[in-house]
Predict the structure of DNA-3-methyladenine glycosylase I.
Amino acid sequence: MDLFESPDGLKRCRWCGGAPEFVPYHDAEWGFPVSDDRRLFEKLSLEAFQSGLSWRTILNKREAFRAAFAGFDIAKVAAFTDADVDRLLADKGIVRHRGKIEAVINNAARAQELIAEAGSIAAFVWRYEAHTPAAPQSQSTSPESVALSKALKKRGWRFVGPTTVFAFMQAMGLVNDHQERCISRDKAAAMRAAFVVPGASA
């Protein structure tokens, strides 16, 4: 069974049954297209922290991550110093992994370069939108995630492997990976059809 029937009687993607907090995240965020650069940077950062962990762990710490990383304001994070790294390593509210912390700070600087190159993070990553995806939730990478991962790594980004990037693409709506009979699939499809990428013509 690829669906989860919630207590409200509605059918959602099966992974929603894994934790109560997954349902509001699924219904309000997951799979709906995003053009805001701060949100895109935040999600790439959180997916990096998730590497080797569960999304539930990261989701439950998301507000602490936001507080620790200045709301994922790209310019502010890019200006973090060694003192900030030490501060973050002492923050019990987040995942205290030096490599991941330093990767997010590095990636903020790379994000600034990407914005200068493409006009916005959105304009760049949406070039890799999946137009003919595989069956929903049937894969952990895709040709598009492999290509985007390579493009980001070429520009110096860290912790952006194809699996991490695919999870980012699922969450940010670059692929509609809601199951066929999930209550959110048609909504995500309609939003993607109407979506206009800021700066896409740049």
Notes: Strands lie at 3-5, 11-13. The chain has one domain: 3-194. The longest strand covers residues 3-5. The mean pLDDT is 94.
